Amino acid sequence: DVQLVESGGSLVQPGGSLRLSCVGSGFIFSNFRMHWVRQAPGKGLFWVSSIEGDEITTHYADSMRGRFTISRDNAKNTVYLQMNTLRVEDTALYYCARDNPDFWGQGTLVTVSS
Amino acid sequence: QTVVTQEPSLTVSPGGTVTLTCASSAGAVTYNNYANWFQQKPGQPPRALIYSTDTRHTLTPARFSGSLLGDKAALTLSGVQPDDEAEYYCLLYYAGVYVFGTGTTVTVL
Question: Which among A10, A76, B84, B97 would be 20 to 30 A from B31, CA to CA?
Fold first, then answer.
């Protein structure tokens, strides 16, 4: 079965940094585009970034470019999201998702607060 | 940044039919936007229903169908069941970048 498991979320102060991870299993990880999507409490879904299976080609939502960096290590079946200069408004549940997206993880919670 | 707009809320009777739409501030939605549709219930991650405008995922019931309706993407729920009560989101693709719609709350009443 396809599984995506996110980790790395925590409470962080404004201006801080955090790296999220998502491990995929049950499929050939390197064959699939991977995404990060976030959802602020009580709000809608927001697409953050994606990375192709080549580990090189990346895309970002305009508001994320420059602060967030997506990467992946196909040898470890893992996609990462490095988040810098975090703001209160970055508080959200961060999901990783595969491909279309079709499969989603359960999410990891990032709280930015002093 | 492109804005993708959905109806805020729709109400449908059990057994009825309801159509949700997805409009883009960048112009008409086309097959090149590869519209996706997702269902989300409280406390759960989104569940993929439709991709590439009109293709159901393997486990998506046949009562869910995707299409283009005029200049918008559309999701039609036929023979609605109480379990279909949820939030629904569309997702559009724009040359590498994706944008989610604002979401539609579907109430079955």
Answer: B84
Across the interface, whether the CB atoms of A104 and B98 are under 8 A apart is answered no
**B48, B51, B89 member nearest A45 (Cβ):** B89
A59 touching B, CB under 8 A? Answer: yes
Tell which residue, B51, B60, B56, has the closest CA to residue B90: B51
Quick one: which of A7, A14, A17 has its CA closest to A95? Answer: A7
CB-nearest partner of B46 from A60, A63, A104 = A104
What are the tokens at A60? 């970002």
Structure tokens at A57: 């080609």
Q: Can you give the pLDDT of all 114 residues of chain A as single tens digits?
A: 999 999 999 999 999 999 999 999 999 999 999 999 999 999 999 999 999 999 999 999 999 889 999 999 999 999 999 999 999 999 999 999 999 899 999 999 999 999
